[in-house]
Automatic annotation (TrEMBL), chains A, B, C, D:
It comes from Thermofilum pendens (strain DSM 2475 / Hrk 5). Belongs to the triosephosphate isomerase family. It catalyses: D-glyceraldehyde 3-phosphate = dihydroxyacetone phosphate. This is Triosephosphate isomerase. GO terms for biological process: gluconeogenesis; glyceraldehyde-3-phosphate biosynthetic process; glycerol catabolic process; glycolytic process.
Length: 227, 227, 227, 227
């Protein structure tokens, strides 16, 4: 499954609204909108739902987290191989709510590449974004933690954090794509993110906690469809 | 789904032999043997396969790990609610390969009880077993880490660790059941474990890495069937 | 150096008011009051000041934290041996701001005993207090985290947490002494703590952030002197 | 106190040979050799000995580790302010035996700069070295963990790891100096390290576990004195 851009990546977090069968329903809605509009909408379900959901939808599915261990005697760990066996196309890692160490990101990025999995490394400042880009993941996702879940979009509140990140990444490793996140809720936020040089957005509550998922996703991607 | 005793709990760990669809196959084999013999055989699949497998078998399914956070903004965490939504009956926690802190076990045990989930808290010494029993989980599972994966059964190599654990738990909290694990491979090990006062065993490689899963499980439970 | 009871243990935390030379001054004030009144006042300086302060005062000095590793190739770790070499009499461990796992407390308590060091294991609920008592430390210190630093004393706000802890410890391991902490500021709080069955208190901001350290400590111990 | 180059940084780790008063003796030997030869020899004592040793020697003293928290209610943590109050000139961080997360290194580097403290960020691969350089510390120290403590010098066994690191750092952030470590024992290793483009070495057992500390340090720096 190929990942197209612009990319909308919906993180289900540990929200009860998107857990178990409700998570599958949300993934199905994302799939429907994606098929109807041609926009790539990817989902990152709860870890426990990964294979359950990835086996039932045809949009890119990401793990929310992965550990740096190979298959083996590692109870309670999530391996890249398990992510792949589950049917996911890749994984997020280092989210502000589940940070790992740089040496672990290094191992994960290298092993993911050899397994054909896509990596999205989350970051919080332009400097950390540059640092993570130096490790060569497919994407970095800059998200100022203080804006996460606020509904105040990073693309408006801190555009300079996004543009500095984009510039530093270009300098350090121009092959790495940049997403941004935190506070993304409406189409305007997505349009602003793209104008700032990103290839898409990472968001969670803006969709997951919306009363009407389909409407929320359609609103999000409206500026991209119009283009 | 009620958990019967003696209990055989098969931990799939992060073994590639039991990942994704192969994990489902192993769970199906366990289900078949359980139905044919009446012995309770439970499985703990990889986290990413939890809902996938729990939705397709009718034996007790446990999570290998759970975090102490409630549903919400917790990317990459496993909540008790997600474990329940996935269709599992309970969760292991504090395995030697994924230890958590005592205050986290306390939160998990209390919240699991209110959600109707069964908790199996792993331990390594008689003292830690007593400590975890003081937190009131449904079961503790004593596993000397140095024997895990060796094929040398704790019930033979260190029977005194098991009997001390059983005695201390009786004193501290007699409602807590005791499992033992580490090195369990054949039926004789299970019989020995029960003689030492446990209600069952926790094992992994002894089954997961066996060439013939059905034969391995049947061999394991042969002493219990005979009874 | 023998530890007498009732015990007043002052935790310097990472407060700037008690860092470096200011930490030494506070320890000297505690020493002065202790010598003049005969009450045991112990201090837990910042890790970086441990040997510096322990080498210059004659009151019991505790480490704020210790790791479960032996001497060796463990950069940035605090060993029990280093704590002893620094001249401290023992160590706190598992403070709510620096929790460790139960198996680590088990290792630390056993090794501390063989080294002749005194252990104070911090806890947050009666159940965790019972659990830690099962590991056999010299003392447990129950501190509801939500009261820490508030000035609202646990002995008044949640006396039942203290009395339940004392009762459970008696049942699980009567050799373990109980301290309480959180919100302790004045002598009245200490008196209440002793009435509830503890052998003393653990406190921090109540003394460290006081304008006049000597006055604050004297006020704290006034009910014990009167006795 | 100014740090001169080439720099020899001796990490005492948690070795019993360099704990407490023995740590002070080793620091005194390093100071003597440094004064006699003019070569900068810095020491990183055990955390518990930091103020004790820094207050008694006139060579640069580093902390082995620091946490990313400011002064305050953080029991058992090491703050940059405590490191400074202890009399140290800076801190190592992210040693392979005590890794922290990239966002924590980011916070530490920025706060250390504002406090006038020197930062040495340890790394394990060229990619991680580049990543840490992007955060702008004063120095990075590349140490392949598999060579640590072996006596097989990185400068001989894996010179390409050192040269790649030096090159990547030049590209990402040329202001950052590069040290190398792992297996460094004799003067030849130091000479090789400098030829590969580093400004010095980080070592531990090569000196700490030597029977004659003075002889070991003199041997180490012999190629630099000759120059």
């Amino acid at each position: 499954m190929k990942i197209g851009y612009p990319l909308i990546l919906i993180n289900f977090k540990a929200y009860s609204e998107a857990s178990g069968k409700r998570g599958l329903q949300l993934a199905k809605v994302a799939e429907k909108v994606s098929k109807e509009t041609g926009i790539t909408i990817a989902v990152a379900p709860q870890l426990t739902d990964l294979a359950f959901i990835a086996s039932q939808v045809e949009i890119p599915v990401f793990s929310q987290h992965v550990d740096d261990v190979p298959p083996g005697s590692y109870t309670g760990h999530v391996t890249l191989e398990a992510v792949k066996d589950a049917g996911a196309v890749g994984t997020m890692v280092n989210h502000s709510e589940r940070r790992v160490r740089a040496d672990q990101v290094d191992v994960i990025v290298k092993r993911a590449r050899s397994l054909g999995l896509t990596t999205v490394v989350c970051t919080n400042t332009p400097e950390v974004t540059a640092a993570m880009a130096a490790l060569g993941p497919d994407m970095v996702a800059i998200e100022p933690p203080e804006l996460i879940g606020t509904g105040i979009p990073v693309s408006k509140a801190k555009p300079e954090v996004v543009t500095s990140s984009v510039e530093l990444v270009k300098k350090v490793n121009p092959n790495v794509k940049v997403l941004c996140g935190a506070g993304i809720t409406v189409g305007e936020d997505v349009a602003a993110a793209l104008r700032l040089g990103t290839v898409g957005v990472l968001l969670a509550s803006g969709v997951v906690k919306a009363k009407d998922w389909e409407k929320a996703i359609l609103d999000l991607i409206s500026p991209i469809i119009k283009k």
